[in-house]
Specification:
heterodimer; A: Heat Shock Protein 90; five-stranded antiparallel beta sheet; 5 strands; B: five-stranded mixed beta sheet
Chain lengths: 149, 116
């Protein structure tokens, strides 16, 4: 049974916290009813987003707060998962956040592409009081969508 | 914990002729990717002709781990050497597919196939 109230976690911006968040997300995806491939995409996307916060919003500082909220979407039955990440670091103009050209094979810059590929919605907005709120949504694929091509 | 005392997820390195085989274990994310990259690039000091990276014991890899492999691949190509990846778990393979790097790297199912 999926939780009917949001689950909130606050972590420090240290990479040591990432496996803990991944484990929580994995369980949440299972409870919501996401298949293994979708769950893998959600876990990877959130990990990439947290990595970006640590590296870019907080410039590599390991002692800054990141708030994570996991919510089930849907009325009578779970229809998907919403993940909100809130940081208090350097804000980025949302219009400047975009995927890069993948034909240019070089290290780095793949996180945004991964999030856009794996999630149904990725939305950045400036937070009141500074920092950024990132909201990502993953819907449970319908039976039609889930059919092999 | 799968990383060693240095934080590197490289578990073992062995040779077959002039091919170096690197066994990697554990999740590869931001906490271990700097040590992973360092260990990979150090391989070039040993002057192998070919590098085989066995990822069968890596359940998870993020883009920072992928970036370490891309950096090694660039150095390998520049030096006229070759490298391949083997044993990718489903989750790790999907990262390469999503980033379209599955067509950039030479990937074998198993280490045995890579060494055939």
């Amino acid at each position: 049974m999926a939780p009917n109230k949001p689950i909130r976690l606050t972590i420090f911006s240290t990479p040591c916290c990432l496996p803990v968040v991944r484990a929580a997300l994995e369980k949440m995806c299972e409870m919501v009813g996401l298949d293994s491939r979708s769950a893998g995409g959600v876990v990877l996307s959130v990990d990439e987003a947290l990595t970006n916060v640590i590296r870019h919003a907080y410039g590599g500082a390991w002692d800054k707060p990141i708030e994570i909220e996991l919510s089930v979407i849907g009325d009578s039955a779970p229809a998907g998962l919403r993940v909100c990440l809130r940081d208090y670091g350097r804000a980025v103009d949302p219009s400047q956040i975009r995927s890069r050209d993948l034909s240019d094979v070089r290290p780095g810059g793949l996180g945004v592409h991964i999030m856009q590929q794996c999630m149904d919605c990725v939305e950045y907005r400036p937070a009141e009081g500074g920092g950024t709120i990132l909201t990502m949504v993953k819907r449970i694929p319908t039976k039609e969508e889930g059919k092999p091509q | 914990m799968s990383a060693d005392a240095t934080g590197s997820p490289v578990r073992a390195i062995h040779w077959r002729g002039q091919t170096v085989i690197v066994e990697v274990a554990g999740d590869i994310d931001l906490s271990v990717s700097p040590a992973f990259q360092h260990a990979l690039l150090k391989l070039l000091d040993r002057r192998p002709l070919r590098i085989v990276i066995n990822l069968a014991a890596v359940p998870y890899m993020d883009s920072s781990g992928v970036a370490s492999l891309v950096k090694l691949l660039a150095r390998v190509r520049k030096s006229g050497l070759s490298m391949c990846l083997t044993g990718l778990t489903e989750r790790v393979r999907s990262v390469f597919e999503i980033t379209r790097l599955d067509s950039v790297f030479v990937i074998f199912g198993t280490e045995t196939e890579a060494l055939r």
